[in-house]
Every structure is written in structure tokens, then in C-alpha cells.
Amino acid sequence: MGALASSRADGAWRPAALALIAELERRGLVGKAWGHGAVRVYNPAGEPDGSDPLGRMLGPGMRQEVLCRRRDGVLWWWWAWSGPTRTSPPELEPLCPVADAVTAVERIARVLAVPFADSPASLDGSASDASSGSSGSSGGCG
Prior knowledge:
five-stranded antiparallel beta sheet, 142 residues, alpha+beta, disordered C terminus
């Protein structure tokens, strides 16, 4: 699988994060870069209705975090999945090299797809890709 060089991001991640966010926005998703090498992404179509207080409180929406870390000397995006307990650190799974922002966004869009919603991320075919048997977390770029 390749060695994760560090649990901390270095300064080279920021341009990759900005490129990823730009690609996400083209797909109708929203991303925000965080200082620890993370991009937090959400699908506006999966957000709770703003006029429903209970829905806002109980519905976390469709969100995913990816982290930028080195793998065998190359910057990669890593899925950040919840650990087994609330106090556990996130479990990381390789997504793809940061140079391949298009692949990263396609996979993120599959995870955050809201079938039948009126959002670009839901209408561009990414939901049908997920049903074809390909996985959004295949761990590589191809």
C-alpha cells in the first residue's frame, strides 16, 4: 500500500487543495481548506432544510474530509474515515495522488451523491457510476 510518511501536512498541500476545491465547485460541491492539510467537502443537495430546526439539529448533511499527506515521497489525497470510537483518530485510506484532482473529485462526488436531488453532483452520472460496481475508495488512481 505504501508508507504514510507523516501524520502532518507540509506546505506543498495548499496549491493542491485549491485545485481540488476548484474542481469540486465545477461539480456543484463545496470544499474548504483547513490548515492541517485537510479539505472538508459537502454536497449542498444533502444539507438539511434550513427552515426545519429539528432537521438541522439531527441531519448532519453529506460531508467528507480528505487529507493531504505524503505516500512514498509523493503527495496523495487520503480519505479520512471515522475511527471506531469518538476519541479515536480518523482512519486514513489512500484516495489518489494530488496531481490527479479530477479522479479525486469523481470519487468524492460518488461518496456524496444524492440520487434524485437537483444538484450537479447528483445529475452528472456520478451516482450511476457507483452502481456499476466501481468503488469510491479503490485506493488508487485507475
